[in-house]
Amino acid sequence: QTSEMLQKICVRNLVRKYCRGLTAERKVQLQQKVVTSEVFSGKKEGYLESLSQPFLDTRLKENDLNPKVLQLIRGENIKYVTPVIKYDRNGFKARERLLVLTQSSAYVVEMAKIKQKIEYSTLKGISTSNLSDGIVVIHVPEDNKQKGDVILQCGHVFETVTKLCILANKQSLVKVVKGSLRFRVGSGKEGTMVFAVGPEPQVFKDKTGQLTVV
């Protein structure tokens, strides 16, 4: 009995020593990784490989943004910026964009223009597939301010989704789907995205008009 008590005390002291020795940066990393685990563990391919890859604070610095964009979002604290591919909701044409996450909103940016702003308070959900693609769909409310859901392809999907759901405080709204998902095009219309496995990654509009992600 004494031995068991001493073992517990020893473990408690080791844990205490480890926790007190953590730097602020390391603590943030672990907190983010815990959220990633809760959202993706056992659900999405590539999760295990992502464990050893530290998240960056941001993929692009604030100075990399166009001054006009900085002027438009002045007063908001920029937290994370990453390059993304945005797919049009109708023709699914791929376009290079930036995803800018501030303390209160997500922005889809084209050079010196803000193409879409999503306030976290209005965010309806975040969807991604269970496969190894980097597709992320940001679901927005049906109102005149929004053109429809945002379809993005991210190079660092675990990092991007984790940052987004933490900033938005919408971890419970992240869904990892299998097979397909529905997204809002606008004006009450919906589209379908289909996920499949193939010899090489690709994203295209199939003969039925659906967006297919391989």
Automatic annotation (TrEMBL):
One annotated Gene Ontology cellular component of this protein: myosin complex
InterPro entries: Myosin_TH1
Source species: Orthonyx spaldingii
GO molecular function: cytoskeletal motor activity
Domain spans labelled TH1: 44-214
Protein name, UniProt field: MYO1H protein
Domain of life: Eukaryota
Gene (UniProt): Myo1h
